[in-house]
Amino acid sequence: MRLTELQHFLDNNTIPKIKRKPKTFFGIAKQPHYENVWSNIYAFFLKVNAEHGLKDLFINSLIECVNDAVVGINNKQNKSESKMEKDFSNFQDFDIETEFGTEGKIDPNTGLLKKGRIDLLLSNKGSAIIIENKVYHHLNNDLDDYWDSVKLDTNSTVSKIGILLSLKSISADNYSHFKNSVEFISITHLQLMKSVFKNLGPYLLNANKTHIVFLQDFYQNIINLSQPNMNKDNINFYFENKDKINELVKFKYQFKQHIITEVEKAGNSITNVKVVVPRNGTHNAPRLRYYQSTLQSELIYTIVFEDLLNGKNILHIIIEPTGKALKNRFIFKNINFDACQNEIICANFYHKTDKNWIHFTSKSYTLNKDNILRLGEFIEDKINDDHFKSIFNKLEHYLTENPIK
To answer: Using alpha carbons only, what angle is made at residue 122 by residues 121 and 126, rounded to the nearest 5 degrees?
Structure first.
């Protein structure tokens, strides 16, 4: 595709901005979707007298969702069909159990007794709420086994219900075993949490502030997983303009390859250094290259080009010691540098406490289009003209004359 066509596309279209989802502690810990973790959190907040101080907020909100779901089911029923009746208006003094073992059913394929585990069971002598917690996993549970395994003092099903708590509403039409289990209803995690936060106000005064923070983070995690990364308008925009967008992606890739090629070309032109590419897949691989001394392997130039790729047009040239040279960096105080060299030596080199990396010299350059076009030459010129090379040579010479044991 010609550049004029791409320019016309950019001039006449507003590229949608994809809103990044807020980071949560669950995401940072890489456990945003673990069902047992979610069940344990629900169990904690459902405990009326737990230290969170929210009292009956969660159970009242859950029952509110149950009532809404039952009303919705009854509204869809034909006049000839019996209505679902549930009453949890006085659901109190209940026990909470996670991973409650079921009695099991005989597997028709193997003839063996197959037992299950109810994710979350809320029950007292006369009432029970059976919760099957689903995040990403497929529904293949024996719901009849779950239902039959929870015994009440009465035979009435008015105060007993099963809940499929999931990211997306689960339809009975899609699951034959769900269709047969008429006492199970579908509620989404987002519906439950919206109910909780709608009812939260009166409980805040006596709530534990730390646990409110935990609750907000949990809610945001559920929002993140419940909603797609892109909306329908974004999807439509892509399909309507995919050829031009793909050309732009290719164009950006070619620009990145130009930057990398020029940076590596400069390293290959400097005597007594070799270009080192960070291991593929690491954080540094797409953002920098090293020029390692062939005389002293623990001495390197670091060329950071990341900001050239994100529109800031800034290049960073750095000299840094590694390994034993980094650990014993105070020996460099014995080297005499002139005034021009001292200007780019980092003032905090002997004070910085980071044990993994410390810059001996560092300088940033704002580049114009011509500089970027001939980036390799620009890097060579700055290393030679801005005293990087002379400093590097002094460090090499000192380490050669005074080897670190």
So the answer is: 120
